[in-house]
Design goal:
Keywords: Signal. The protein is α+β, with helices and mostly antiparallel strands. It is built from 3 helices and 9 strands. A hairpin with a 6-residue loop joins strand 5 and strand 6.
């Protein structure tokens, strides 16, 4: 007996429905803390992830261009050699919502991440490592934007 594409799709949908109702798929996934991504300042975003007063550190590195020709897509990287790190954050101080990215770190993860951010204007960019005991260590760099990414 030949199975048509339509029958295969119907059977796949039925199996997916059974798996979803059986509890094998997570019903709710929270990848971030809303308060942190809705924070209007860098300290408020740090506080939402349990970070204390930030301290500059040579063990946290930030890679970003000195001049971003297009603020809509600015490549950034964050890394650390610190032990006991829980989160790595990328923040742009003058963005309406400074928190750009949050990466969870565990023993099985190399704490070295790349991302792209939107910047509306020239600003200080922060890479912040939050340790399991609540310390916030950061690296900072000024990135000049020649063409704004927020409609400018």
């Amino acid at each position: 007996m030949k199975t048509t594409r339509r029958q295969t799709l119907q059977q796949s949908a039925a199996v997916a429905g059974l798996l979803a109702t059986s509890g094998l798929f997570p019903q709710h996934a929270h990848a971030w803390t809303n308060a942190a991504f809705e924070a209007k300042t860098v300290p408020d975003a740090l506080k939402a992830y349990g970070g204390g007063a930030p301290t500059e550190s040579k063990d946290v590195t930030l890679t970003a261009p000195d001049i971003a020709e297009n603020g809509a897509v600015v490549p950034m990287g964050v890394a650390t050699t610190l032990a006991n790190v829980k989160h790595l954050l990328v923040m742009v101080e003058k963005n309406p919502f400074p928190l750009v990215a949050k990466f969870d770190v565990s023993e099985s993860v190399d704490p070295n991440f790349l991302t792209r951010a939107k910047m509306g204007q020239s600003s200080d960019v922060y890479a912040v490592a939050i340790t399991r005991d609540g310390k916030a260590l950061y690296a900072k760099k000024e990135v000049k934007v020649t063409l704004g990414g927020c409609g400018g």
